[in-house]
Design goal:
The protein is an alpha/beta fold and about 290 residues long. It is built from eleven helices and ten strands. The strands form two sheets. The chain has an eight-stranded parallel β-sheet. A two-stranded antiparallel sheet has the order 1-2. Helix 3 links the parallel strand 5 and strand 6. Helix 1 runs parallel beside helix 2, helix 3 crosses helix 4 and helix 7 packs across helix 8. The chain is globular. The mean pLDDT is about 95.
Length: about 290
């Protein structure tokens, strides 16, 4: 299943996410995903595994043009010239000469003038053909308005935390108003049960309403959540390094959820963010240097 971005570029709706995938596991995970039928891989400079993503793609023996590669510029590389160089670093590690989608990882409102300059660099990379589409991640509606007021090209994608316990309807509406595709990170609620993120959090994978729908279709809760994203027109990038889970997360095109089932999943929204608040400055994290190679 493909989604058409606002500049006419098509993108596979389901991609493999590699956030928190150790470099030594990433190559095998990418190889397994491509063998299972994925044609979209999402990584980021800040993940420290772009090189291994590139290795996995090459091991697949697929042509470069068959795999949609998405990566992200980290905050320490914001600024016009710095972001142009971030493209050099990313393509060098991935071993490619163009990117399908390059996005800004955070709005970084404590230095938004650098965020604007970084996005203008993305516009240059798009005009030069070095990227096929550009976008943002974790941008709230007020960040989007500030960006659109200062730049020329509407982002193709806004990648945000989005799962049944946190659906961000206001952000989705703002994206839709501007023709921006909403892409879900943590699409099956992984952020709610990653180690170290707080033991008080409820695991959406164990939600009884989702479990009941899954039983009705002979599917897993993860598959039901991914189908929910697809029905509602979103891109989703589930993360796994387990080959069986990777394949399971892609096996979501053979059933349809009813309007009542979609509404029941929507009703699970708690309004509680589990990942970092995009409006909070994180100077130490933002200062993380992305290596040259």
């Amino acid at each position: 299943m493909e989604l058409t971005l606002n500049n006419g570029v098509t993108m596979p709706a389901i991609g493999l996410g590699v956030f928190q995938s150790a470099p030594e596991q990433t190559t095998a995970a990418v190889e397994a995903a491509l063998a299972a039928g994925y044609r979209h891989i999402d990584t980021a400079a800040a993940y420290g595994n772009e090189r291994e993503v590139g290795d996995g793609i090459r091991r697949s023996s697929l042509d470069r043009s068959e795999v949609f590669i998405e990566t992200k510029v980290w905050v320490s590389d914001y600024g016009y010239d710095q972001t142009l160089h971030a493209w050099d670093k990313a393509t060098g590690k991935l071993g490619v000469d163009y990117l399908d989608l390059l996005i800004l990882h955070q709005p970084a409102p404590d230095r938004f003038e650098k965020t604007i300059a970084a996005y203008k660099a993305l516009e240059t990379l798009l005009a030069d053909g070095r990227v096929r589409a550009i976008g943002v991640s974790n941008f709230m509606p007020h960040h989007l308005e500030q960006l659109l007021d200062s730049t020329d090209i509407v982002p193709a994608v806004n990648q945000i935390e989005l799962h049944p316990y946190f659906t961000q309807p206001g952000v989705q509406a703002a994206d839709a108003e501007h023709g921006i595709l909403t892409q879900a990170w943590s699409p099956i609620g992984g952020i709610t049960f990653y180690p170290g993120w707080g033991q008080e959090r409820r695991n959406v994978m164990e939600d009884p309403a989702i479990a009941a729908i899954a039983r009705a279709y002979g599917k897993s809760p993860a598959q039901v959540m991914l189908r929910w994203h697809l029905h509602q027109g979103r891109s989703a990038i589930p993360k796994s390094t387990n080959p069986a889970r990777i394949a399971e997360n892609f096996d979501v095109f053979d059933f349809e959820l009813s309007a009542a089932e979609l509404a029941a999943i929507d009703a699970l929204d708690t309004g509680n963010r589990n990942g970092p608040d995009p409006d909070e400055a994180r100077p130490e994290r933002f200062a993380m240097v992305i290596p040259e190679a």
